[in-house]
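User: I need a structural model of BTB/POZ domain-containing protein KCTD3-like from Cyprinus carpio for a docking pre-check later this week. Nothing fancy, just the predicted structure tokens so I can convert them on my end. Input:
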Amino acid sequence: TLTWIPDSFFSRSFLFYKIFIDRDPTAFAPILNFLRTKELDLRGVNISILRHEAEFYGITPLVRRLLLCEELERSSCGSVLFHGYLPPPGRVRADGPQRLVDPRKVLIVAGHHNWIVAAYAHFVICYRIKESSGWQQVFSSPYLDWAIEQVALNAKVVGGPHGDKDKMVAASSESSIILWSIQDGGSGSEIGVFSLGVPVDSLFFIGSQLVATSHTGKVGVWNAVTQHWQVQDVVPITSCDTAGSFLLLGCNNGSVYYIDMQKFPLRMKDNDLLVTELYHDPSNDAITALSVYLTPKTSVSGNWIEIAYGTSSGAVRVIVQHPETVGSGPQLFQTFTVHRSPVTKIMLSEKHLVSVCADNNHVRTWTVTRFRGMISTQPGSTPLASFKIISLEETESHSSYSSGNDIGPFGERDDQQVFIQKVIPVTNKLFVRLSSTGKRICEVQAVDGTSITCFTVRECEGSSRMGSRPRHYLFTGHANGSIQMWDLTTAMDTVGGPTEEELLKLLDQCDLSTSRCATPNISPAPSVLHSRLRESCSRYCPAGEPRTVGREQH
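Assistant: Understood. Predicted structure tokens for BTB/POZ domain-containing protein KCTD3-like:
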């Protein structure tokens, strides 16, 4: 009965009188039953494991049946969460010398309102969504000679060079930044190429101002109204955040500084940016994570501001600027010392305080009590959850990897926020988890089976029809250059997030011996955090002239 399938392990063993010892009795039992009865009993057996066993023994009819069972769970059209697919661009250059970065894959996806920008190694593409026509490509940048590391998008520019209907997109590599203006019809033009003089770590817009920061202690600002690029030296920067028109900088000397970009203040004596010290950590620890929450009571002058920050020693502190303490600065509100590694991320929202440290993305969360919108001490913040967002690091990752694979949390501060978990660097699956509890909201898997190379979560405005609300979407960039979209608003599954079995199954595809650490996608990565902190304590001396592209403006 075991030899009715030609070319199987058992047929050949019978011909050559070989001795058979089953590898896995649990998996072999249904195989033996199939060979005897030609019937398949799947009770208590993992289909994937059984298929591997059947392939090993060469049981072709059984392998085909199991493949069909697995295909029933997969679809090239995705699940109910799948929202759309943007095909790869057709302009990738395959010629030239071997490059460090694959020119085909999407490095970073960023969004603003109803626009997204996809950054490839040497160009960017902007897409816009309209209710009637869906997602449409509206801009493609010229080919760049350097590999893009950061990207920023502003879909609502006020006071731009061509009016209020401008959109702006910027990209950076090492110390160089290139900025384009996109008109309402989709035509784009280069505004200029600027130099920060040192490697750019963060690139973003605050209103109509483009801001670039470096951990070495430089801030570059381009003003859309004055068309002026200005570089400012400050203390070495270890974190930053924005709120309204405010830019807040956490520095290695334990101080939090701020700049009001709406006023764009310049000192009269030297025309430098007015950088004001807001608070100094009582332990003099470096401010490694920063989060600002503007309460409903905040006025134009920012009378009521709440700031949460994390330090290099693992402390989490909350400071509050009350209306009656405007003259004396913020007051220390709460301190938590639950982390033993540097805090790499922090988020203060309406209902929760979330912190992440360098120990395998260990997350601690607290509930926040508010009275009339303002943080309250009665009963105060209470512990809520403790969990980890395991995310392995590429052995030789490009500088764009941390930007494109940031775990979050994503979402508005007055709504539920989520973490995006990418367990291993090369995978086609992501887990979406609540930032407050770690529970799984859903998992997404690439509809075409390609590896996910980057991701982001954005809120897009809904239909113009009455009662329509904005919806949250997960955008995933892929190794083949495509972009796939997932509707997180529709996600209803609240199962808790990857089980031990699922985690081990994913880790089977990854060689842990080549991974530098378990948390690749924190910016900066834990593997380089301590070296950066040491580096920022010394005076930065540039090793050479910055590499530039095109014309430069200073």
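Before docking, keep this in mind: The chain has seven helices and 34 strands.
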